[in-house]
Known about the structure:
By secondary structure, this protein is mostly beta strands. The chain is built from no helices and seven strands. Strand 1 (9-15) and strand 2 form a beta hairpin.
Amino acid sequence: EKPSKPIIIRQVDSTPDSMLLSWTAGYNGNLDISEYIIQIKRQNDESDLILWTDAQTYSVAVSSVPYRVVNLHPGTQYMVRVKAKNRIGFSDFSHVFVFSTKEK
């Protein structure tokens, strides 16, 4: 069966232009997780509606967790969500977590 969504995303480290992210996997569906998909976008305070169409999307190997997202802006809040993939398919996305890069 498909995996469950990752449970908790943590910001392990932050610089002005990157953040190191880790997460806790959910149930794997009795199959090995083959990859994770991370979506990250700048937090938009203007609307309650979150559109992920303009999000940066990364495919992450299981062996690459924790994963460093680069080319970010200093002192900026970002929304992050993650989903898992196994041989059957993708989980739903995790809850959205908000993290900030450091000021320059």
